């Protein structure tokens, strides 16, 4: 057997999807290294004295105490040496100690990240479900009253500031109507569930606590509603545009000409054809929900990643800031990787690109 035949046989045995995934994993690793570099450099460029922030104004004025802190944390080393020290600690899972809470940053993030994931997952599921219906309906009723109403509603959702909507919702539903619970993840009378995932709704279910689960869901309602209204505006407009493009394609017209049921045409042809661009926007929206909920979390006293990031920045907590920056970077990398994976599964052309 010739060398060319052996190579051809090996290429046939190699899965296109496996090669596609390997390329994406390699790219993600390089991007992750880039995230650590950018996070480290930007954090060190923040104006202010990290020694004073860590020790306080009184202790930082003592030359011996100040010098001991600088040597202990390698702040007297060149910047590239500090980066390698940071990477060494990072590979051991050590992100430092928060100057605000006095706890390891990893422990703080382990508590804050699940709280944000819980609210973001609920918001993106609700947003996608509503947007698919509204966007598809607006596309099918293009130029009619239904389309105009949907476009106006989505425009309002995109234009209203998130923090204003959160404040109005809290005031109206909690302070005035008293139909929504107060701030926080659960009521003071409810004992938090044993930690499994860190997401209270899931942990209450795993613990068989129906009362706690209902209370956690009630506290989720307002923040999820606020985040969903903004996200629905973005997704609906994009889904409408994508569906309109697919409706003009030949294969959709052929499916209609065959006399296929309208619902089958929508599900099997229209939505499937519009899935790839919509998937990209959903990934971006989900990443924005995970990393940009600081205003909503502040209004509803939700102890998530946004609140932790704000407290770290306000108190010049450099370990906390670097930890948040790293987590946000990893979140976007993971979301992009999952989107790329789904691209490869849904569209065979992507695998060999």
Automatic annotation (TrEMBL):
Annotated ranges, domain ABC transmembrane type-1: 113-343
Main location: membrane
Location within or outside the cell: Cell membrane
Pfam families on file: BPD_transp_1, BPD_transp_1_N
Membrane topology qualifier: Multi-pass membrane protein
Transmembrane segments: 21-42, 117-140, 152-174, 216-235, 274-301, 321-346
Keyword Membrane applies: yes
Record GO terms (molecular function): dipeptide transmembrane transporter activity
Keywords: Cell membrane, Membrane, Transmembrane, Transmembrane helix, Transport
Gene Ontology annotations for the cellular component aspect, listed alphabetically: plasma membrane
PANTHER family xrefs: D,D-DIPEPTIDE TRANSPORT SYSTEM PERMEASE PROTEIN DDPB-RELATED (PTHR43163:SF8), DIPEPTIDE TRANSPORT SYSTEM PERMEASE PROTEIN DPPB-RELATED (PTHR43163)
Annotated family: Belongs to the binding-protein-dependent transport system permease family.
Designated name of the protein: Dipeptide transport system permease protein DppB (TC 3.A.1.5.2)
Species this chain originates from: Microbacterium esteraromaticum
